[in-house]
Design brief:
single chain, 227 residues, alpha/beta, TIM Barrel, 8-stranded parallel barrel, 9 helices, 40% helix
Length: 227
């Protein structure tokens, strides 16, 4: 469970205290939730126990590596048109790499999975003219549902875009993702997280994960909400 778009140390501490696993800072100059390097480092330092994620859009491998070193990043999340070669280069540098993909259909998702086979995780979200991320653009979950078996259990897939405390449990039950990622869905204002929403998001995702795991162990089908 990743809380992204962290702009304040107190919000990173909130995410860690709520039980999130990852905290993300935006490294896209000009974006609403971008903060200078020193501020971003202070934010990440406050999220004790969170794995540190930097979100980049076509920044170039050299810039990503430099910022990763300065911020102590564990993960580089790539939101742009980065090439498979860039993904491989960053992995060789010791970073876990998540590649964001925005498929229009199931075929597009399978193509992206093949193109970015070197990525540690594919993060699927919706596209929007409002920005590269953090705008709550949900994708049609049926795109992922239709290809889950084809992707295979070794292909880690995360879900982002439009997630909120109200729908994250449904996403977990239906899609069984390796990660759920939220930013605007737990905010009271851009860059300002809402404590109640963060705690509810994490708790409901965790409960749905436990429910799905229990159903799998018992051999019962995983219950899915109506579409």
């Amino acid at each position: 469970m990743k809380i992204c778009g962290l702009c304040r140390p107190e919000d990173a501490a909130l995410a860690a205290g709520a039980g999130a696993t990852h905290g993300g800072v935006i490294r896209v100059p000009g974006a609403a939730r971008w903060r200078p390097l020193e501020t971003a480092r202070a934010v990440l330092d406050a999220g004790v126990g969170l794995r540190r994620v930097g979100v980049f859009v076509d920044a170039g491998a050299d810039t990503v590596r430099a910022e990763a070193e300065a911020l102590g990043l564990d993960v580089a999340q790539l939101h742009g048109t980065e090439s498979p070669a860039e993904v491989e280069s960053l992995r060789r540098a010791g970073l876990e790499v998540w590649k964001v993909v925005k498929p229009a259909d199931a075929g597009g998702l399978l193509e992206a999975a093949s193109r970015y086979a070197a990525a540690d995780l594919l993060l699927v979200e919706g596209s929007s003219e409002a920005g590269a991320g953090g705008v709550g653009a949900r994708f049609d979950w049926r795109i992922l549902e239709d290809v889950l078996e084809s992707l295979g259990p070794a292909r880690r897939v995360g879900v982002a875009g439009g997630l909120t405390p109200a729908n994250v449990a449904e996403a977990v039950r239906r899609l069984r993702p390796s990660l759920v990622d939220v930013s605007s869905g737990v905010e009271r204002a851009p860059g300002e997280k809402d404590g109640e929403r963060v705690r509810a998001f994490v708790a409901r995702a965790r409960a749905a994960e436990d429910e799905a795991a229990g159903a799998t162990e018992s051999g019962d089908p995983v219950r899915r909400e109506e579409r």
